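Continued from yesterday's entry.
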Amino acid sequence: MQLTAAVVAVQGDVSEHAEAVRRAASAHGHEVEIREVRTSGVVPDADLLLMPGGESTTISRHLRREGIAEEVREHVAADRPVLATCAGLIVAARDAKDDRVDELGLLDVTVDRNAFGRQADSFEVPLDVTGLDSPFPAVFIRAPVIDEVGEGVEVLASWEGRPVAVRDGPIVGTSFHPELTDDPRVHDLAFFETGATLPER
């Protein structure tokens, strides 16, 4: 199957996400065309959507200003899968507890920005993730923490007693950066494994 993956390209590890989703898709016999999202008109044609990290206030304002925010909401309403990482998680959340962030309100969680510290406090840990058969090498960089999860949200992974990966319908959100490893399993989990719905086109 030929799929189109849109990667929000305001900031963040766009090429790394692109490579990870290609590797995950290839394992399932799919080819993926990567399209970078900077303006409106790209997301409506996408089967998969990736929202990378960066600075959540900048990303959220750009999405709203360019008309991309509503396209992302329509993508989720159509039950098409999304992977939102770090700042992408913050932007997708119901409440970032920061008036500077224009949240999309798609992921029923509240988050605390930079809860794991500043860039100097970055770290990597082996993380047990539901659906993966061995620990994932999770890289945390100025990572948010998920404070509260809604009733329908599945916690996929926790670190030090706090959720750091969740699934809410077609959205998987992570506090960490799965694209900064050679391990594509989180992308696989978000888009191709149990719970993800590939489009029928």
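--- second protein ---
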Amino acid sequence: MIFNNYPVAAMPSRIAIQALRTSLALFLASSPLALSAQTTPETAAALCVELAGQPDAGVPVSPEAQEAAQAALALATPHCEEALSGGSEDPVVLFYIGVIRQAEGEHDAAVAAFEASAAGGLAAANTKLGDYHLFGIGPLRRDAEEAADYFEAAAEAGDAPAQMTLGLMHRLGAGVPRDLGRMVELMRAAADGGYHFAQYRIGQIFLTGEGIPGGEDASLGIPDRELAARYLSMAAEQGNIEAVLELARYYGELDGAGEGDPGQQFIWTERAAEAGLPDAVAALGFLYERGRGVEASAEQAATLYVQALETGDVDFDDLRGRIGGYTPQWDRETAIAFQLILQERGLYLGAIDGIIGPMSRAAAAALDD
């Protein structure tokens, strides 16, 4: 069973991550904490918490966000270890010791640290323990009922990742009764609490009725396209790229081809393209070709088509209209611009006639060589 996922791309740039590392290094060099008392357990604990940040047992919004969190924890680790050696009982320090031990594969020590952190009142530690029992990590066997107890404790304390996972368990009847009303209640609480993954998943449920028998339930208010768009937008604004793609489809297919909201479709498609998704780059080219949500530009459309094909991840037959789902004939000016680029690359030797036939297709196929 799948309870969490990692979006395929994300918004934080590597430049931003490097800036984080630099700022943290400067902090270590100049912080009054670092300068005033370098070996006391209290100072070490404060630095551990300051550098590692707010404890979070949820799924990072992206691989880049995960890398940034790991970079911060790497800088915090010696201070967390020093605080532990000095006898610190700070639940946040203990939580991060658990994270560190888990990454090292020392699961007995990780569980012990999370248990101590949870005993100190940190909800995210209960969520970590729930994960251990749910998936049978390290010394623990899989036990959905035991996991549910930990998630319940964390959810009652307002931990959004715990609320989300417990909601999914109620959907499946894993360790708890199958209860779709409780699922929606918990997932909405997690989404309203700011958890991007919950915002994305509950948005999908309100949009498509996913997981609901028959795809609809009037008592739960499902489906509700407006509410779906609101939750998906919340997730997308945080950098959840799957939500971005869902919004691009949503505004492109509201009532069939040619309907929806072209301006919003362009905004979200461009956001996905900026994140480097080949499908979105191709879809953005299609919007430029059709002048949908943006002034038509044959040259820009052709350039984007070429960029998408160069990745090798977009098939020529799926090049145009992949997100929108509606593929008309090539615009002649765009086809000519496309052939000209292929000609400049030395791939196309045919006539510049705006007819995308076998020669044009063969040339396009060579773009990712």
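The radius of gyration is 25 Å. The chain has two domains: 14-276, 277-369. Will compare against the first tomorrow.
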